[in-house]
């Protein structure tokens, strides 16, 4: 009997959130920003573990609801005010969030464009479940392209925001996860924690190490179950991947995925996934999206402009 029970317990205890007494890594898991967030802590005492788990879950839940692209919250209020074309003072969390997004957008030459929310919505990606069966009307896409919303349309002055273009609608889906992970790492450091990973569905920032060895990270294969590569991280490093497999629908044998080329209004072609390594998670997140759009011919120039040193791009030839 015992033989049957012991392996079963071991299997169950490999799951995150289940901490074996002999495991030096404390793991916690919660849901936010549309994905499961896994926290790993090395060398934390019990009080730090509890404080960190609770504080992080609370911070992520707040960021999730305030920065949501299509549900009520401070980002939605910001979008309403921007569309009205009046200067207004946004909440204190929104200003640095949008300032960072705008800076990264300009650095990417507009390939990471957080102001194309109307286009993302038109493609049916402002939904928890993707139900679109066909691409949108080409005329509707052209109409939005002609209105050309960009980060350069939004002025941020004296704590006030003003949009010159009523077509601007912020969607931070390509960047908020990274920005949130940076804030989460700062929170852990403020609690005295130096060895940790915050992993949001495979996108993560790792600080310190796993004791006397580096943290080991798997990078998911874009077309098969399991990992394509693994990498060892220590010090302070983020890894972010943008892939055509994350959110998509299929019509007439074609895959229409969620990473839209702001120049054409259609899902970016020729790239399957892009993985970026960089210290800051916000930059890595925005860059992975921008390099996906730039594609096999354009990625190197955009990486240089965004200060990215490590990239793995898988094109449609694999
Ligand atoms: P990611 O997985 O980080 O590449 O983010 C993809 C998400 O970002 C999409 O689901 C959209 O919400 C949004 N998005 C799509 N295309 C772009 C783009 N070119 N620039 C900025 N955000 C985008
Ligand atoms: Mg991204």
Question: How would you briefly describe this protein structure?
Answer:
This protein is α+β, with helices and mostly antiparallel strands. 36% of the residues lie in helices and 25% in strands. It contains eight helices and 13 strands.
Would you give an account of this structure?
The chain has 318 residues and is an alpha+beta fold. The chain contains eight helices and 13 strands. The strands form four sheets. Strands 1-2-5-6-9-12-13 form a seven-stranded antiparallel β-sheet, with helices on one face. It has a two-stranded antiparallel sheet with strand order 3-4. Helix 7 packs across helix 8 (281-306). The longest helix has 26 residues, at 281-306. The N and C termini lie far apart (48 Å). The relative contact order is 0.13. Residues 174-175, 240, 242, 285-286, 288-289 line the site of magnesium ion.
Largest sheet: 7 strands, antiparallel
Count all strands and give the number.
13
User: Span from first to last CA?
Assistant: 48 Å
Note the total helix count. 8
Keywords:
alpha+beta, 318 residues, 13 strands, binds magnesium ion, two-stranded antiparallel ribbon, binds adenosine monophosphate
Write the layout of secondary structure elements.
Layout: H1 2-13, E1 25-32, E2 35-42, H2 46-66, H3 74-84, H4 94-107, H5 117-122, H6 138-147, E3 154-157, E4 160-163, H7 176-190, E5 196-200, E6 203-208, E7 215-220, E8 227-233, E9 235-243, E10 248-251, E11 254-257, E12 271-278, H8 281-306, E13 310-315
Antiparallel strand pairs: 1-2, 2-5, 3-4, 5-6, 6-9, 7-8, 9-12, 10-11, 12-13
The protein binds adenosine monophosphate and magnesium ion.
Residues 174-175, 240, 242, 285-286, 288-289 line the site of magnesium ion (MG).
